[in-house]
Structures are given as structure tokens and as C-alpha cells.
Design brief:
305 residues, mainly beta, six-stranded mixed beta sheet, elongated, disordered N terminus
Length: 305
């Protein structure tokens, strides 16, 4: 009985005074450029004498009360709160993304790991409206994108990021370009749709069937880590050209829900031709012509007399 009590007493004392690190409750995810806090909850650890450390992957960041790697001045070691061995990161970069571990070494080794994910940013822009003539050999729809960080594709982070650019009409994929260590294309319509200037779309052999709303979507993914996307839409209107003038035709939905052709005539000046577009130009042109005619008659009569 005495031996059992001694064992229980020893276990109680060991439990109270043994060194420990509480398991992390979750991983940490931030957008590039934002700040982050990595908190290691400890118990019965003397940061000045016990062997405790923070590691980023295989790199030693902090040991006891000393910050070993400052992360270009963005890392700080916070020991102000009891039982918290804390790393603060200012302006997270893609290089910070890794498995971080907090460990104590000694007679009662303990530790835990968390995944620190940094999400890059992408912004896509297009022109709002585009026009093309029916029967033209090609037209282009503009699209451009910016990445944050700008050197994302050329940085040394691992695994390598992958950028994919999709052009869609409604929900149908027209063409896709994937950029990583090389460039590849995917499209069932390569004779019709091709990329120009990195992200813009070229449409060949334009017809009225090409009219509609198009979407440029850019996705940036880091395999096994994260994916971020952004998109922008643009509209293409297709016009028809006649010999009398330019008539813009487009397919619209009327109040009855029917698809109809809407036409708007515009004037194209021609020598000796007066076109009435309903704005009073015909009356003005007729008056000017009459004045010119009377002036010529007066000149002829003056030479005769």
C-alpha cells in the first residue's frame, strides 16, 4: 500500500512540474503582406535555461530567449506573456510559408507542429465593351492581371506556383493557358481562339455568333497549399457594314422575351449625296446648296452684262 501511494505521489508531482507544450488547435493562414502571430502554449518551461526552440521547416528561428533568424527584420520573439513562446511575423511573404514547429528538448521532450500558409493575391482587368465587324478576320478581347508578390513565378519558394488563365463564354471553356516552369494550352477551338499578349483573347473569323459576354479568369495555385482566383468580364458586340452607311445590328431580348435584331442607321457622308438621319441635316444641306446655286447664277449673269 505504501509503494502505491509513493507511485501516485510521484506521478502527481511529475504531472505538475513536467515540461509540456500544448497541441496547436489550428493551422495559420494569412494573405501575403499581412501580419501573423504563432503562439506556442507551454507549461513549466524556463525560457532562459530549458532547451526550447521555434523552427521553420529545418531552419532554426528562435532558441531559448534568442531570435536566431530575424526574417529580414520581420520576425520578433515575444516572451511577455507567461507560458507563451510567441513568434510575431510582420508583412508575411511567400518565403514564410512552411511547417513551423515548437519543441522542448530534455528529459521530457515535447512539441507540436502547425502549417503556416501565405496566400498570394491576383487582380484581373478587362475593357468593359468591345466591337468588331461581321466577317472580319479577327478581333481581340483585352485581359491583364497582376500578382502580389510580383516575382511569384520567379521566386525560390517550393512547391512552384502555377498560374492558369481561362477564357469562358457563359460557362463554356474556350481556351486555357497554364504557366509554371513551362507554358501549355488546352482548347477544343484552337483554330478559333488563341492567346495574345499573355492573357488577351484573339477570336478568328468574326460572325454574329461571337457576340456575347466573355470572362477572363486567372487562378494562382501552390500545390498542396492554396489557390486564389480573380476574374473580369467583357462584352463583344458585332456590327454589320452596308454600302449606304454603317448599321449596327445586335441581338437583344424584347419585352416579350423574344430574341430580335436591333438596328440603328448612322450617316456616312458621300460626295453629292444627302442622307436624312432625322436630325435636320437634310434641310440645312438643301438651303446651303440653294445659296451656292444662286451665287453661281449671279456670277454668270454679271459676265454677260
Amino acid at each position: 500500500m505504501k509503494e502505491l501511494l509513493l507511485v501516485l505521489l510521484w506521478n502527481a508531482v511529475y504531472t505538475v512540474f513536467s515540461q509540456s507544450i500544448s497541441p496547436f488547435t489550428s493551422n495559420v493562414t494569412v494573405t501575403v503582406g499581412n501580419d501573423a502571430v504563432l503562439v506556442c502554449q507551454t507549461s513549466n518551461i524556463d525560457y532562459a535555461s530549458d532547451t526550447i526552440s521555434w523552427n521553420r521547416g529545418e531552419s532554426l528561428i528562435a532558441f531559448r530567449e534568442e531570435l536566431i533568424d530575424t526574417g529580414d527584420g520581420r520576425y520578433t520573439l515575444d516572451l511577455d506573456t507567461p507560458d507563451r513562446y510567441t513568434i510575431r511575423i510582420t508583412g508575411a511573404t511567400m518565403e514564410d510559408q512552411s511547417k513551423w514547429s515548437c519543441k522542448v528538448h530534455g528529459a521530457s521532450s515535447a512539441g507540436d507542429e502547425l502549417w503556416f500558409t501565405v496566400i498570394p493575391m491576383v487582380s484581373v482587368s478587362t475593357t468593359q465593351f468591345n466591337t468588331a465587324e461581321n466577317g472580319s478576320s479577327s478581333t481581340q478581347l483585352y485581359c491583364d492581371y497582376t500578382l502580389n508578390p510580383q516575382d511569384l513565378l520567379t521566386s525560390d519558394i517550393s512547391p512552384k506556383p502555377v498560374v492558369s488563365i481561362d477564357w469562358k463564354r457563359d460557362s463554356s471553356l474556350l481556351v486555357r493557358k497554364t504557366v509554371s516552369t513551362s507554358v501549355s494550352y488546352l482548347s477544343p477551338f484552337l483554330d478559333k481562339y488563341t492567346f495574345v499578349d499573355d492573357a488577351s483573347l484573339s477570336i478568328a473569323n468574326v460572325t454574329f455568333e461571337d457576340e456575347g459576354v466573355y470572362t477572363c479568369l486567372v487562378a494562382v495555385s501552390i500545390p498542396e497549399w492554396s489557390t486564389v482566383t480573380d476574374s473580369a468580364t467583357t462584352r463583344l458586340d458585332v456590327n454589320v457594314v452596308t454600302t449606304a452607311g454603317v448599321v449596327t445590328e445586335r441581338i437583344v431580348t424584347n419585352a416579350q422575351g423574344e430574341r430580335v435584331t436591333q438596328a440603328k442607321p448612322t450617316t456616312r457622308p458621300r460626295s453629292g449625296v444627302v442622307v436624312d438621319d432625322g436630325s435636320g441635316a437634310m434641310q440645312t444641306s438643301a438651303i446651303l446648296g440653294l445659296v451656292a446655286c444662286l451665287s453661281q447664277i449671279a456670277y454668270v449673269l454679271s459676265t454677260l452684262y
